[in-house]
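request received
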Amino acid sequence: QVQLVQSGAEVRKPGASVKVSCKASGYTFIDYDINWIRQATGQGLEWVAWMNADTGNTDYAQKFQGRVTVTWDISISTAFLELRSLTSDDTAVYYCARPDDQVDSAKYWGQGTLVTVSS
Amino acid sequence: DIQMTQSPSSLSASVGDRVTITCQASQDIKNYVNWYQQKPGKAPNILIYDASNLETGVPSRFSGSGSGTDFTFTISSLQPEDIATYYCQQYDDFPLTFGGGTKVEIK
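response:
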């Protein structure tokens, strides 16, 4: 079955960077896009980035341009989200999510990774 | 960016009630809308895709309708296990955008 397993919680100081991983299993990694979506505590869902490991294409939300990068390692079926110059506003749960042939954007979700930015 | 205006932000209803949530897009997005249910501490779960298609395994009391700019999500008979926050999401174009969410509670 399809699974997306994310790395564990992280704590960073303001100005630092964080890299969250999302290991995919149960399917061929390059066959589907991955979206990264975040959720601050008690808040709604916010799209961060998109990647297609087959074409090498990526897209980022404008508000994160310049400080976010998505990468991947096909050999280990793992996607990565790196966010730099962290502020307290980046404190959130970060999810990776994958569509399927019927459901666009996000049918399968990782369990989420809490990133806490605090001095 | 396409804005998704979801209402209400919260509602309280009795078990067995019909519950309706609306989402209005800032431009025509055809039927490119998903509806998710999210329970505390969990990732969202897809309920409806393409505005009106029920995801496999989702109870038939959930339904969706609409196209263009106006979309509706309905729970025909609210059950205690439906207590959650519900989100609409458009995928007509990047950036993907979500409605603000509707928190559903039992009266």
